[in-house]
Target: Electron transfer flavoprotein subunit beta
Amino acid sequence: MKILVAVKRVIDYAVKIRVKPDKSGVETNNVKMSMNPFCEIALEEALRIRESGNASEVVIVSMGGAQCTDALRTGLAMGADRAIHVSTDQYLHPLSVSKLLKSLVAIENPGLLLLGKQAIDDDCNQTGQMVAGLLKWPQGTFASKVVLDKAKSTATVEREVDGGLETLCLDLPAVITSDLRLNQPRYATLPNIMKAKSKVIKKVTPEELNVEIKPDIEIVEVNEPPKRKSGVKVSSVDELIDKLKNEARVL
Model:
């Protein structure tokens, strides 16, 4: 069985985000970029499934400009077998990404499509659900545990919900999105990082995949979160009640 994993290049989670002066987006020049953490978790799970003997190949795909190859090189260094770059300079919304993934699935014919539950740059949390709908495949979102049964061609997905744990049994092929607690991604070793630099990355375009990218969402303005007022210490319960009544007006 082949596993296809979608990965995204985003601003590193440790970087302090700065909004551009014209408020058209966030500053990405001279900013550290890395693979989306949830995508790393999805890739790690795919590698573990392959190592357990339930898959024969792990293929990673990323979409966007030339810089996307950085995330793909990282994935190859972690242990992915092949990498595909869907090259486009257009901003891709979740529906466009889902259509491109659907076309790639038709070409690669994987038994499992793994994604992070969301990207930390836009927090859309839509792509996995959308591509599952387009493919008409069963889906298991926010997976905190995945168990494959190769004989029955099923995947058991455990997911954390507000009321506790929910367990789903999916017939393969299926779409699974990873949550934070699914696993701890491995670090790429230096020899593998060096080897990944020389590996060939297949390049395709949306036109070659017969997908028309039409931006159906316009970002009007991006602003930083409003600054919060500093806290106030009170010396007594009476003073607290007075402030809640007269200042906060919640009583």
Q: What stands out?
A: The first helix runs from residue 37 to 51. The chain is about 25% helix and 25% strand.
